[in-house]
Write a structure and sequence with these properties.
The protein is an alpha/beta fold. The protein is built from 12 helices and 17 strands. The protein folds into 4 domains: about 60 residues, no CATH class; about 170 residues, P-loop containing nucleotide triphosphate hydrolases (Rossmann fold), CATH 3.40.50.300; about 55 residues, no CATH class; about 70 residues, Beta-grasp domain (Ubiquitin-like (UB roll), Roll), CATH 3.10.20.30. The longest helix has 24 residues. The termini are far apart. The structure holds guanosine-5'-triphosphate and magnesium ion (MG). Magnesium ion (MG) binds next to helix 4.
Length: about 400
Amino acid sequence: MPTNVTAEYLAAEEEYHRAKTIPEKIRALEKMYATVPKHKGTEKLRLQIKRKLSELRRELEKQRQMKKGGGGPSIAVRKEGAAQIALVGLPNVGKSSLLRTLTNVETDVADYAFTTVQPVPGMMHHRDVQIQLVEVPGLVEGAALGKGMGPQLLSVVRNADAVAIVVDLSGDPVKQMKALLREFERAGIKVNKRRPRVEIKRTAMGGIVINGVENIKGDVSEVVKILRDERIHSAEVTVKEPVTLEEIADALDESLVWKRAIIIANKGDAPGSKENYERLLETYGDRFKVLPVSAKRKIQLEKLKDELYELAGIIRVFTKSPGEDPAYPPVPLKRGSTVMDLAEKIHKDFARNFRYARVWGKSVKFPGQRVGADHVLEDGDIVEIHAR
Ligand SMILES: Nc1nc2c(ncn2[C@@H]2O[C@H](COP(=O)(O)OP(=O)(O)OP(=O)(O)O)[C@@H](O)[C@H]2O)c(=O)[nH]1
Ligand SMILES: [Mg+2]
């Protein structure tokens, strides 16, 4: 153990050794991680704590699954529309109020916590696309560690395509964000972070081969250890960008999910909301798009729809037959979709008998350009598929 740790760290370590339950252990390890000085000499220690936390998180989830009925009734929400966005926040911040105005769902709004106790879905229609919003009942501290329906609620978030975090500007939004991000972290949900670019290809034999070793900031032998812990003994690992050991561990941790997110700063009409908004922006503005709104006074709601549409990561593509006008409505696709993805969405035969396509729009250099199945489409493109 490094000699340069603080008294707080030692106290947390003591707490860890005394801890009996998994949630207790997790809380103690989080304290250890928060109090360990961040420099090169403690790099391995930090990595160890992070890995232990990940292991306990997975164990907790396994325990929950083993319990009768998977630890309570499933509250999963079936996906409908082009994308599903989770509306998530602490209790009483205005999630239902937003859902009501954005989707016309008649859900209860009241001035106390836990009005909503089940996830409530609603359809938002915007720019010819249907996007499903799901209000996740208010999260509380300890949700991810088993409090109330916490784990089930967080699994709704894990399953969504993107996350809209709702905070209340009549209270301290930075505190709210910290609490939410901690629960996300505990549930293995990474928001607005990109999975580090480390690729792993399992091989039948040949041991561990690491390409791009120069990109690893830290002891390479630790990477081999991480892999061994995951029971990977033969693989080709390619490190494509500079990464720390903790980032490599994250990249190789398949229990993590990576989600795009924005912050909806609600109750922008409340006294003191301006100052609170500014503090929120100062702390989280670099990492998140922050949109101040008022569900009650219906302020900035059109802009909010635009932002949610952006967040959903949808493009609309118009199809057409030769010599005819584009068909309406457009087909919604995930950003990054190809001509083949479109063909498959329209009709299996189209995909099977595909020859080429002609495209008009942003993704091509000239109108009516002939492209192949792998061509990546953009929002607003018009596509004419030619099949046998
Ligand atoms: N001033 C102000 N109050 C709002 C706004 N939006 C919602 N409220 C009020 O905040 C309270 C809670 O609103 P809800 O929409 O029920 O909040 P929720 O997040 O769904 O609450 P739970 O389901 O209990 O977690 C109600 O009294 C709303 O009228 C807003 O933009 N401004
Ligand atoms: Mg509600």
